[in-house]
Amino acid sequence: FVSQPVPGKYILVTGGAGFIGSHTVLQLCRNGHDVVVVDNLCNSVEDSVKRVEIITGKKVPFYLCDVRNKEDLTKVFDKYDFWAVIHFAGLKSVAESFKIPDVYMQNNTEATRILVDCMMEHDVHNIVFSSSATLYGYGRGKDLLTEDCNIEPINPYGESKYKAEQIITEKMKSFEKGQACFLRYFNPIGADVTGLIGENPKDIPNNLIPYITQTLVGRREILSVFGNDYNTPDGTCVRDYIHITDLADGHLAALEKLRENEVNRNGASAPIDDRTLIYNMGNGNGFSVLEIVAAMSKAAGKQVPYKIAERRRGDVDRLVASSAKANKELKWFTKYNIEQMCADAWRWQSTNPEGYDNPSEYILNLL
Ligand code: NAD
Ligand code: WQD
Protein backbone atom coordinates (compact mmCIF):
# COMPACT_ATOMS: atom_id res chain seq x y z
CA PHE A 1 0.00 0.00 0.00
CA VAL A 2 1.30 3.42 -0.85
CA SER A 3 0.40 6.41 1.28
CA GLN A 4 1.68 9.78 0.27
CA PRO A 5 3.59 11.88 2.79
CA VAL A 6 2.53 15.51 3.12
CA PRO A 7 5.68 17.44 2.18
CA GLY A 8 7.48 19.08 5.10
CA LYS A 9 5.12 17.60 7.69
CA TYR A 10 5.63 14.93 10.33
CA ILE A 11 3.39 12.18 11.66
CA LEU A 12 3.33 11.88 15.45
CA VAL A 13 2.97 8.29 16.65
CA THR A 14 2.10 7.88 20.33
CA GLY A 15 2.92 4.43 21.70
CA GLY A 16 5.19 3.98 18.69
CA ALA A 17 7.59 1.65 20.52
CA GLY A 18 4.82 -0.90 21.14
CA PHE A 19 3.72 -3.86 19.05
CA ILE A 20 1.30 -2.22 16.61
CA GLY A 21 3.01 1.18 16.89
CA SER A 22 6.47 -0.06 15.88
CA HIS A 23 5.10 -1.96 12.87
CA THR A 24 3.14 1.11 11.78
CA VAL A 25 6.19 3.36 12.19
CA LEU A 26 8.06 0.87 9.99
CA GLN A 27 5.40 0.98 7.25
CA LEU A 28 5.24 4.79 7.48
CA CYS A 29 9.02 5.02 7.03
CA ARG A 30 8.93 2.53 4.16
CA ASN A 31 6.40 4.88 2.50
CA GLY A 32 8.67 7.91 2.97
CA HIS A 33 6.86 9.57 5.90
CA ASP A 34 8.79 11.52 8.53
CA VAL A 35 7.78 10.13 11.90
CA VAL A 36 8.22 11.21 15.52
CA VAL A 37 7.53 8.72 18.34
CA VAL A 38 6.47 9.44 21.91
CA ASP A 39 6.17 6.57 24.37
CA ASN A 40 6.55 6.15 28.13
CA LEU A 41 7.95 2.62 27.60
CA CYS A 42 5.60 1.11 30.20
CA ASN A 43 5.14 -1.91 27.92
CA SER A 44 7.94 -1.59 25.38
CA VAL A 45 11.59 -0.73 24.82
CA GLU A 46 13.18 1.92 22.62
CA ASP A 47 15.08 -0.80 20.72
CA SER A 48 11.99 -1.44 18.59
CA VAL A 49 12.26 2.08 17.20
CA LYS A 50 16.04 1.73 16.78
CA ARG A 51 15.48 -1.43 14.75
CA VAL A 52 12.99 0.39 12.53
CA GLU A 53 15.72 2.94 11.87
CA ILE A 54 18.11 0.12 10.95
CA ILE A 55 15.60 -1.55 8.61
CA THR A 56 14.65 1.65 6.80
CA GLY A 57 17.75 3.83 7.18
CA LYS A 58 15.43 6.65 8.28
CA LYS A 59 15.86 8.62 11.50
CA VAL A 60 12.89 8.40 13.87
CA PRO A 61 13.13 10.94 16.72
CA PHE A 62 12.04 9.30 19.98
CA TYR A 63 10.73 11.11 23.08
CA LEU A 64 10.29 9.41 26.43
CA CYS A 65 7.00 11.08 27.19
CA ASP A 66 3.80 10.14 28.95
CA VAL A 67 0.71 11.23 27.05
CA ARG A 68 -0.92 12.10 30.39
CA ASN A 69 1.74 14.80 30.85
CA LYS A 70 0.51 17.80 28.88
CA GLU A 71 3.61 19.88 29.54
CA ASP A 72 5.94 17.26 28.04
CA LEU A 73 3.60 16.59 25.16
CA THR A 74 3.33 20.30 24.38
CA LYS A 75 7.12 20.52 24.03
CA VAL A 76 7.00 17.86 21.30
CA PHE A 77 4.11 19.64 19.54
CA ASP A 78 6.05 22.93 19.74
CA LYS A 79 9.09 21.35 18.09
CA TYR A 80 7.55 19.70 15.01
CA ASP A 81 5.02 20.60 12.35
CA PHE A 82 2.67 17.60 12.51
CA TRP A 83 0.14 16.77 9.84
CA ALA A 84 -1.46 13.91 11.76
CA VAL A 85 -1.31 11.93 14.97
CA ILE A 86 -1.67 8.15 15.22
CA HIS A 87 -2.62 7.43 18.80
CA PHE A 88 -1.61 3.94 19.99
CA ALA A 89 -0.44 4.81 23.51
CA GLY A 90 -2.53 3.05 26.09
CA LEU A 91 -2.99 -0.02 28.23
CA LYS A 92 -4.61 -3.11 26.74
CA SER A 93 -5.06 -5.90 29.26
CA VAL A 94 -8.69 -6.76 29.90
CA ALA A 95 -7.81 -8.69 33.09
CA GLU A 96 -5.69 -5.83 34.47
CA SER A 97 -8.45 -3.33 33.70
CA PHE A 98 -10.76 -5.08 36.19
CA LYS A 99 -8.11 -4.61 38.89
CA ILE A 100 -7.13 -1.00 38.18
CA PRO A 101 -10.00 0.60 36.22
CA ASP A 102 -8.95 4.13 37.21
CA VAL A 103 -5.51 3.68 35.72
CA TYR A 104 -7.13 2.52 32.49
CA MET A 105 -9.35 5.58 32.48
CA GLN A 106 -6.33 7.84 33.01
CA ASN A 107 -4.10 6.19 30.37
CA ASN A 108 -6.69 5.49 27.72
CA THR A 109 -9.38 8.13 28.15
CA GLU A 110 -7.92 11.17 29.92
CA ALA A 111 -4.64 10.88 28.01
CA THR A 112 -6.65 10.99 24.78
CA ARG A 113 -8.39 14.16 25.96
CA ILE A 114 -5.00 15.77 26.67
CA LEU A 115 -3.60 14.70 23.32
CA VAL A 116 -6.55 16.13 21.37
CA ASP A 117 -6.31 19.38 23.36
CA CYS A 118 -2.65 19.62 22.28
CA MET A 119 -3.66 18.96 18.67
CA MET A 120 -6.29 21.69 18.81
CA GLU A 121 -3.89 24.17 20.37
CA HIS A 122 -1.34 23.46 17.60
CA ASP A 123 -3.78 23.23 14.65
CA VAL A 124 -3.01 19.58 13.98
CA HIS A 125 -6.24 18.45 12.35
CA ASN A 126 -5.98 14.71 11.79
CA ILE A 127 -6.03 11.79 14.20
CA VAL A 128 -6.15 8.03 13.73
CA PHE A 129 -7.14 6.29 16.95
CA SER A 130 -6.55 2.67 18.08
CA SER A 131 -9.94 1.35 19.00
CA SER A 132 -10.92 -2.23 19.60
CA ALA A 133 -13.30 -5.04 18.76
CA THR A 134 -13.84 -5.29 22.49
CA LEU A 135 -16.38 -2.46 22.08
CA TYR A 136 -18.77 -4.99 20.54
CA GLY A 137 -18.93 -6.88 23.83
CA TYR A 138 -20.60 -10.25 23.32
CA GLY A 139 -21.08 -9.56 19.62
CA ARG A 140 -24.56 -10.95 20.06
CA GLY A 141 -26.18 -12.80 17.22
CA LYS A 142 -23.82 -11.64 14.51
CA ASP A 143 -21.67 -13.84 12.31
CA LEU A 144 -19.71 -10.88 11.05
CA LEU A 145 -19.53 -7.72 13.14
CA THR A 146 -20.12 -4.48 11.29
CA GLU A 147 -19.35 -0.98 12.55
CA ASP A 148 -23.03 -0.28 13.27
CA CYS A 149 -23.36 -3.26 15.68
CA ASN A 150 -24.33 -2.50 19.27
CA ILE A 151 -21.58 -1.01 21.36
CA GLU A 152 -21.61 -2.72 24.74
CA PRO A 153 -18.21 -2.68 26.46
CA ILE A 154 -18.12 -5.52 28.99
CA ASN A 155 -14.90 -4.61 30.78
CA PRO A 156 -13.24 -1.40 32.05
CA TYR A 157 -10.70 -1.58 29.20
CA GLY A 158 -13.53 -1.47 26.64
CA GLU A 159 -15.23 1.35 28.51
CA SER A 160 -12.02 3.39 28.56
CA LYS A 161 -11.67 2.97 24.78
CA TYR A 162 -15.32 3.78 24.08
CA LYS A 163 -15.12 6.93 26.21
CA ALA A 164 -11.97 7.93 24.32
CA GLU A 165 -13.88 7.54 21.02
CA GLN A 166 -16.68 9.72 22.42
CA ILE A 167 -14.27 12.41 23.60
CA ILE A 168 -12.59 12.59 20.20
CA THR A 169 -15.98 12.73 18.43
CA GLU A 170 -17.17 15.56 20.67
CA LYS A 171 -13.95 17.55 20.36
CA MET A 172 -13.93 17.26 16.57
CA LYS A 173 -17.35 18.98 16.47
CA SER A 174 -15.82 22.20 17.73
CA PHE A 175 -12.52 21.80 15.84
CA GLU A 176 -12.64 23.50 12.44
CA LYS A 177 -10.97 21.22 9.83
CA GLY A 178 -10.56 18.49 12.45
CA GLN A 179 -11.10 14.87 11.37
CA ALA A 180 -10.69 11.55 13.12
CA CYS A 181 -10.56 7.94 12.08
CA PHE A 182 -11.22 5.15 14.60
CA LEU A 183 -9.81 1.77 13.68
CA ARG A 184 -11.39 -1.08 15.64
CA TYR A 185 -8.80 -3.84 15.58
CA PHE A 186 -9.63 -7.50 15.99
CA ASN A 187 -6.68 -9.80 16.91
CA PRO A 188 -3.36 -8.57 15.48
CA ILE A 189 -0.59 -11.21 15.39
CA GLY A 190 2.60 -12.01 13.47
CA ALA A 191 5.62 -9.81 12.93
CA ASP A 192 7.41 -7.94 10.20
CA VAL A 193 8.83 -10.33 7.63
CA THR A 194 12.42 -9.26 8.49
CA GLY A 195 12.01 -10.82 11.96
CA LEU A 196 13.68 -7.73 13.41
CA ILE A 197 10.66 -6.36 15.26
CA GLY A 198 7.77 -8.17 16.92
CA GLU A 199 5.44 -8.54 19.88
CA ASN A 200 7.33 -8.14 23.15
CA PRO A 201 5.06 -7.84 26.20
CA LYS A 202 6.91 -6.87 29.38
CA ASP A 203 4.98 -9.22 31.68
CA ILE A 204 3.51 -12.70 31.27
CA PRO A 205 1.58 -12.47 28.00
CA ASN A 206 -2.22 -12.23 28.20
CA ASN A 207 -2.65 -12.78 24.49
CA LEU A 208 -2.65 -16.15 22.84
CA ILE A 209 0.15 -15.87 20.27
CA PRO A 210 2.91 -14.44 22.49
CA TYR A 211 1.99 -17.01 25.14
CA ILE A 212 2.36 -19.77 22.54
CA THR A 213 5.63 -18.47 21.08
CA GLN A 214 7.14 -17.95 24.53
CA THR A 215 6.12 -21.51 25.41
CA LEU A 216 7.77 -22.78 22.23
CA VAL A 217 11.09 -21.11 23.13
CA GLY A 218 10.92 -22.48 26.67
CA ARG A 219 10.05 -19.30 28.56
CA ARG A 220 6.65 -20.73 29.61
CA GLU A 221 5.86 -24.31 30.48
CA ILE A 222 2.52 -25.02 28.90
CA LEU A 223 -0.34 -23.12 27.25
CA SER A 224 -3.67 -23.15 29.07
CA VAL A 225 -6.53 -23.23 26.58
CA PHE A 226 -9.23 -21.27 28.35
CA GLY A 227 -12.36 -23.40 28.00
CA ASN A 228 -13.48 -26.00 25.46
CA ASP A 229 -17.20 -25.84 26.12
CA TYR A 230 -18.05 -22.73 24.09
CA ASN A 231 -20.72 -22.75 21.43
CA THR A 232 -18.22 -23.19 18.56
CA PRO A 233 -17.34 -26.18 16.32
CA ASP A 234 -14.50 -27.47 18.55
CA GLY A 235 -15.66 -25.80 21.77
CA THR A 236 -12.78 -23.25 21.92
CA CYS A 237 -13.26 -19.55 21.22
CA VAL A 238 -13.16 -18.24 17.68
CA ARG A 239 -11.37 -14.99 16.81
CA ASP A 240 -10.43 -12.96 13.76
CA TYR A 241 -6.62 -12.86 13.52
CA ILE A 242 -5.00 -10.21 11.34
CA HIS A 243 -1.35 -9.91 10.31
CA ILE A 244 0.33 -6.98 12.01
CA THR A 245 1.68 -5.66 8.68
CA ASP A 246 -1.83 -5.67 7.20
CA LEU A 247 -3.02 -3.78 10.27
CA ALA A 248 -0.13 -1.31 10.05
CA ASP A 249 -1.01 -0.70 6.40
CA GLY A 250 -4.59 -0.04 7.52
CA HIS A 251 -3.28 3.03 9.34
CA LEU A 252 -1.59 4.26 6.16
CA ALA A 253 -4.85 3.72 4.30
CA ALA A 254 -6.67 5.73 6.98
CA LEU A 255 -4.17 8.58 6.65
CA GLU A 256 -4.60 8.51 2.91
CA LYS A 257 -8.38 8.78 3.32
CA LEU A 258 -8.03 11.78 5.64
CA ARG A 259 -5.61 13.41 3.23
CA GLU A 260 -7.92 12.77 0.25
CA ASN A 261 -10.87 14.26 2.18
CA GLU A 262 -8.78 17.30 3.08
CA VAL A 263 -7.82 17.84 -0.58
CA ASN A 264 -11.39 17.26 -1.82
CA ARG A 265 -12.79 19.80 0.64
CA ASN A 266 -10.23 22.33 -0.55
CA GLY A 267 -9.38 23.66 2.90
CA ALA A 268 -12.97 23.73 4.21
CA SER A 269 -14.16 21.93 7.34
CA ALA A 270 -16.15 18.70 7.08
CA PRO A 271 -19.81 18.95 8.19
CA ILE A 272 -19.95 18.59 11.99
CA ASP A 273 -21.37 15.06 11.93
CA ASP A 274 -18.92 13.80 9.29
CA ARG A 275 -15.71 14.48 11.17
CA THR A 276 -15.31 10.98 12.52
CA LEU A 277 -14.87 7.82 10.43
CA ILE A 278 -15.01 4.32 11.90
CA TYR A 279 -13.60 1.11 10.41
CA ASN A 280 -13.18 -2.45 11.57
CA MET A 281 -9.83 -4.05 10.83
CA GLY A 282 -9.98 -7.82 10.58
CA ASN A 283 -9.93 -10.63 8.04
CA GLY A 284 -13.46 -11.92 8.14
CA ASN A 285 -12.22 -15.45 8.93
CA GLY A 286 -12.60 -17.06 12.32
CA PHE A 287 -10.06 -19.47 13.84
CA SER A 288 -10.51 -21.40 17.08
CA VAL A 289 -7.84 -21.55 19.78
CA LEU A 290 -7.14 -25.19 18.85
CA GLU A 291 -6.82 -24.28 15.18
CA ILE A 292 -4.25 -21.63 16.15
CA VAL A 293 -2.39 -24.16 18.30
CA ALA A 294 -2.25 -26.49 15.26
CA ALA A 295 -1.15 -23.70 12.89
CA MET A 296 1.58 -22.49 15.28
CA SER A 297 2.80 -26.08 15.84
CA LYS A 298 3.08 -26.49 12.08
CA ALA A 299 4.92 -23.17 11.62
CA ALA A 300 7.40 -23.98 14.40
CA GLY A 301 7.83 -27.64 13.40
CA LYS A 302 7.03 -28.76 16.94
CA GLN A 303 3.90 -29.33 18.98
CA VAL A 304 2.73 -26.53 21.24
CA PRO A 305 2.27 -28.12 24.67
CA TYR A 306 -1.21 -27.30 25.97
CA LYS A 307 -3.86 -28.30 28.47
CA ILE A 308 -7.52 -27.47 28.64
CA ALA A 309 -8.20 -25.08 31.52
CA GLU A 310 -11.13 -23.14 33.00
CA ARG A 311 -12.81 -20.43 30.98
CA ARG A 312 -11.28 -16.94 31.33
CA ARG A 313 -13.50 -14.16 32.67
CA GLY A 314 -14.97 -12.00 29.93
CA ASP A 315 -14.22 -14.27 26.94
CA VAL A 316 -16.96 -14.65 24.33
CA ASP A 317 -17.66 -17.50 21.86
CA ARG A 318 -16.90 -15.74 18.64
CA LEU A 319 -15.75 -12.31 17.43
CA VAL A 320 -15.20 -12.00 13.70
CA ALA A 321 -15.12 -8.76 11.71
CA SER A 322 -16.74 -7.59 8.59
CA SER A 323 -14.11 -5.26 7.15
CA ALA A 324 -16.20 -4.58 4.05
CA LYS A 325 -16.44 -0.88 4.89
CA ALA A 326 -12.65 -0.49 5.10
CA ASN A 327 -12.24 -2.56 1.93
CA LYS A 328 -14.61 -0.25 0.06
CA GLU A 329 -13.85 3.18 1.49
CA LEU A 330 -10.15 2.85 2.33
CA LYS A 331 -9.35 0.48 -0.55
CA TRP A 332 -7.58 -1.59 2.07
CA PHE A 333 -7.38 -5.37 1.81
CA THR A 334 -5.49 -7.91 3.91
CA LYS A 335 -2.74 -9.86 2.15
CA TYR A 336 -1.56 -12.43 4.69
CA ASN A 337 -3.17 -15.76 5.59
CA ILE A 338 -3.01 -17.60 8.89
CA GLU A 339 0.02 -19.72 7.85
CA GLN A 340 2.02 -16.55 7.07
CA MET A 341 0.91 -14.93 10.34
CA CYS A 342 2.12 -17.93 12.32
CA ALA A 343 5.35 -18.27 10.33
CA ASP A 344 6.19 -14.58 10.92
CA ALA A 345 5.30 -14.76 14.63
CA TRP A 346 7.61 -17.75 14.91
CA ARG A 347 10.47 -16.14 12.93
CA TRP A 348 10.40 -13.20 15.34
CA GLN A 349 10.29 -15.25 18.55
CA SER A 350 12.71 -18.00 17.48
CA THR A 351 15.36 -15.50 16.43
CA ASN A 352 14.62 -13.17 19.37
CA PRO A 353 13.79 -15.60 22.18
CA GLU A 354 14.19 -12.86 24.78
CA GLY A 355 12.56 -10.16 22.71
CA TYR A 356 14.89 -7.20 22.23
CA ASP A 357 17.27 -8.43 24.95
CA ASN A 358 20.33 -10.55 24.14
CA PRO A 359 19.97 -10.66 20.33
CA SER A 360 20.84 -13.97 18.65
CA GLU A 361 23.79 -14.40 16.23
CA TYR A 362 21.31 -14.25 13.36
CA ILE A 363 19.92 -10.91 14.52
CA LEU A 364 23.36 -9.48 15.35
CA ASN A 365 24.41 -10.20 11.76
CA LEU A 366 21.44 -8.28 10.47
CA LEU A 367 21.92 -5.28 12.76
P1 NAD B 1 1.57 -2.21 23.28
O1 NAD B 1 1.45 -2.28 24.77
O2 NAD B 1 2.61 -3.03 22.64
O3 NAD B 1 1.75 -0.70 22.82
C1 NAD B 1 1.24 0.40 23.54
C2 NAD B 1 2.37 1.38 23.72
O4 NAD B 1 1.88 2.53 24.42
C3 NAD B 1 3.52 0.81 24.56
O5 NAD B 1 4.72 1.06 23.91
C4 NAD B 1 3.43 1.58 25.89
O6 NAD B 1 4.69 1.72 26.48
C5 NAD B 1 2.82 2.89 25.44
N1 NAD B 1 2.05 3.61 26.46
C6 NAD B 1 1.09 3.13 27.28
N2 NAD B 1 0.59 4.13 28.05
C7 NAD B 1 1.25 5.27 27.70
C8 NAD B 1 1.18 6.61 28.11
N3 NAD B 1 0.33 6.99 29.08
N4 NAD B 1 1.99 7.50 27.53
C9 NAD B 1 2.86 7.13 26.57
N5 NAD B 1 2.98 5.86 26.13
C10 NAD B 1 2.17 4.94 26.69
O7 NAD B 1 0.13 -2.55 22.70
P2 NAD B 1 -0.32 -2.72 21.19
O8 NAD B 1 -0.80 -4.10 21.02
O9 NAD B 1 0.70 -2.19 20.26
O10 NAD B 1 -1.59 -1.78 21.19
C11 NAD B 1 -1.56 -0.45 20.70
C12 NAD B 1 -2.94 0.16 20.86
O11 NAD B 1 -3.89 -0.62 20.16
C13 NAD B 1 -3.43 0.23 22.29
O12 NAD B 1 -4.10 1.45 22.47
C14 NAD B 1 -4.39 -0.94 22.41
O13 NAD B 1 -5.38 -0.70 23.36
C15 NAD B 1 -4.97 -0.98 21.00
N6 NAD B 1 -5.47 -2.30 20.61
C16 NAD B 1 -4.63 -3.37 20.67
C17 NAD B 1 -5.10 -4.63 20.28
C18 NAD B 1 -4.22 -5.86 20.37
O14 NAD B 1 -4.75 -6.96 20.38
N7 NAD B 1 -2.91 -5.74 20.41
C19 NAD B 1 -6.40 -4.77 19.81
C20 NAD B 1 -7.23 -3.64 19.78
C21 NAD B 1 -6.73 -2.40 20.16
C1 WQD C 1 -7.59 -15.14 22.06
C2 WQD C 1 -8.22 -16.46 22.42
C3 WQD C 1 -8.61 -16.77 24.78
C4 WQD C 1 -4.45 -16.81 26.02
C5 WQD C 1 -8.02 -9.38 23.39
C6 WQD C 1 -8.84 -8.24 23.86
C7 WQD C 1 -9.33 -7.47 22.68
C8 WQD C 1 -8.19 -7.08 21.78
C9 WQD C 1 -7.40 -8.26 21.37
C10 WQD C 1 -7.29 -5.03 22.62
C11 WQD C 1 -9.30 -16.32 23.49
C12 WQD C 1 -7.60 -17.76 24.26
C13 WQD C 1 -5.60 -16.75 25.25
C14 WQD C 1 -4.11 -18.04 26.65
C15 WQD C 1 -6.07 -19.03 25.66
N1 WQD C 1 -7.24 -6.25 22.44
N2 WQD C 1 -6.40 -17.84 25.09
N3 WQD C 1 -4.94 -19.11 26.44
O1 WQD C 1 -9.26 -12.05 24.21
O2 WQD C 1 -9.67 -12.29 21.73
O3 WQD C 1 -8.84 -10.21 22.60
O4 WQD C 1 -6.96 -8.93 22.56
O5 WQD C 1 -8.14 -4.26 22.30
O6 WQD C 1 -9.96 -6.37 23.20
O7 WQD C 1 -9.93 -8.73 24.60
O8 WQD C 1 -7.32 -12.11 22.56
O9 WQD C 1 -5.16 -13.24 22.46
O10 WQD C 1 -6.18 -12.76 24.71
O11 WQD C 1 -7.21 -14.48 23.27
O12 WQD C 1 -6.78 -20.04 25.52
O13 WQD C 1 -3.11 -18.16 27.39
O14 WQD C 1 -7.21 -17.29 22.99
O15 WQD C 1 -9.49 -17.38 25.67
O16 WQD C 1 -10.30 -17.23 23.17
P1 WQD C 1 -8.88 -11.74 22.84
P2 WQD C 1 -6.38 -13.11 23.29
From TrEMBL:
Q: Where is the NAD(P)-binding domain?
A: 12-344
Gene3D superfamilies reported for this sequence:
NAD(P)-binding Rossmann-like Domain (3.40.50.720), UDP-galactose 4-epimerase, domain 1 (3.90.25.10)
Pfam (any one): GDP_Man_Dehyd
Alphabetically ordered keywords of this record: Carbohydrate metabolism, Isomerase, NAD
- Which coenzymes or cofactors are required? NAD(+)
* Reaction equation(s) it catalyzes: UDP-alpha-D-glucose = UDP-alpha-D-galactose
Kindly indicate whether the keyword Isomerase belongs to this entry: yes
Which pathway does the protein contribute to?
A: Carbohydrate metabolism; hexose metabolism; Carbohydrate metabolism; galactose metabolism
Instruction: Give one GO molecular function term.
Output: UDP-glucose 4-epimerase activity
* Keyword Iron-sulfur appears in the UniProt entry: no
Q: What is its EC number?
A: 5.1.3.2
**One Gene Ontology term, aspect cellular component:** cytosol
The alphabetized list of GO BP terms reads:
galactose metabolic process
PANTHER family per the record? UDP-GLUCOSE 4-EPIMERASE
Q: Belongs to which family?
A: In the C-terminal section; belongs to the aldose epimerase family.
| Role | Mutarotase converts alpha-aldose to the beta-anomer. It is active on D-glucose, L-arabinose, D-xylose, D-galactose, maltose and lactose.
**Protein name per the record:** UDP-glucose 4-epimerase
Organism, as annotated: Anaeromyces robustus
